[in-house]
Amino acid sequence: MKPLERLKSLLNSGAAQPLARSWAVERTIDGHLEKLEQQLRNGANAYVPQDLQEEAVQRFWASKRIDSFRDAQLVSHGIALPVGAKRLRLIEDRERFPVLLDSVDEYLPAPRQFRRCYQGLLKGYFAYDYERNDVPKVGAENWHTLRGYLAKRSGNVLHGERNPQWTQTLQQHVTLFGLTPCERYGPALLAGNSHEVDDLREVLGISDGSWFMRKLFLAQVQAGVKKPDAQFLETLYRLLELLQTNEVIRNEGLILVLNRFAQLRPPQLAIPLRDAAVAWWGNPWLDTNAMWKHKDLAPEAKAMVTEWLKLEFITAFFTLLAEENTGDDRRLRFWERYVNTISDIRFALGSEAQSNTSPDFQKLRKKMAGLVVPLSDNVRTNNAFIMRMGPLVVVEFSGYSNACYGYDARRELPFRYDMPVVMPVDGKNSLKHSKRELYLRHQDGVHGYERWEDRFEEELATNFGVKPKKSAAPPLVLKRPATLPATSSPGAKVAGPTASPPSTAAPARPAASGAGRSAVGQTVGNWRTTPYSRASLSLFAAQFGLSIDDLSAQNGNLWVRTDDSHLGINEVLLRWGFEYKNAKKGWWHKGRGRRCSDSSGTHRRRPRAKHGLRGLRMQACA
Q: Which of 85, 198, 367, 496 gives 20 to 30 Å between its CA and that of 414?
């Protein structure tokens, strides 16, 4: 092909190619146009460069006057901005801030200009956190002045028939300038609906860092505690999850929840509420934990958690830390009746309990923080439980064969808590001392008492004025709902709850009534996946009010005395290998008694004292 013809061919193909190419529709253009139109309708915050705001604020700081509309707009947007070498904020200046508001008022006859200044002040209203600890008093005062100004002038942002969307939205939400700016949004957010709040934040430009977000989360808690009892209990777990993931409102929110829960009649026990309160605030009767002294916390709420924790400690000692004879729980049942008389609790832990790395023991030791004294003894599994009850300090030991000691609390005790304690009688810092005021053995048929509990009770009442709690139904254990709708988190994702194993220290038992047990199927929870152990069985029985009869030491069976009417309990016991006999005898398992491992790793039965030899010291597992 000749050069001239080749050039002609190339030109022809180049001209035809664009016409032959199909033009793809750029669908994203429609989305961009729609977004731009929405911004125009909303009158979205015009971008105001921060450096220009700083320059305008510094000019105003020096001159104390506004010379132009441009400066009025820039300074209005920059009221909460730290400027200059000293990082001063205009809203924290007592002299200049009122001057700015007066200057903005001069633009009231020019609605469009006033509106732009108002928008800047509104931005500062949401940006400045007046409740921060480091906020000066004048800053909080000026913020409240600004709130009143914005409320008073909110209607002045409208002019004519066509107004930006944000000005119309503002008229529908004037409660933003009230004493409870987020109260109206709480119920919907708690129910999982955040549409109104999401739209409001987008139109008004409220950022995630605003105090408004904190108030929104708190509004959900406030909405929950205002519900009637039944509905409040249905939302309790959602409220706790909300507090768990939003530390900034945790203290204030927990006060609201505890105060509300303490009003319930009849009393109920919410184990996650107890655990959360202790995890976040510590032990309620230790002086070092300041939140329990908060002025807004009702005394009955503190007393409620105190009783819950003491019950948990009593249960934990006699199920995890003690070696109860033939698996009975008589000591546990006896001392839990005195929970209201106990003013202080201490634990003397042996080396086994101090070093045990199982999750159960780690959680328990964390709750015991500030209450533990080391117990130095050749038997690593020995522990002791020390209770202050009126004028008496009672010491119970883990070994069932050990007597219960009591000392006059009004005198100097023979042991101290700031150094390890020991167990030999009259030893240095020993828990066992001959100068005791009380010495009682857990033996039936002694001194004319059929049961040792009767003798203990009379001794405590007659000699020390210590009497048990009047007989009353134990608190109902609040069940966790089968499904939990997520609480709404406007504009941000909040981490959901994670599953946790059953509490280390067994929770208080539900009422023995049919009403209390009707929900057992829903409350067994993670017990369904918990491996069998003798300690787990004790915890399980304590939680659901079951009686254990361990006859394995006499070559008998291990019995759980309950019928088969509770599906959840049935499921757990069957999974653990128990078989159902009948309603009278309950559930049994051949040879599943208390075991321990010797140095070779093989399992052997723990030696038991024979009848009439309870005074002999039990052999412990090494």
A: 367
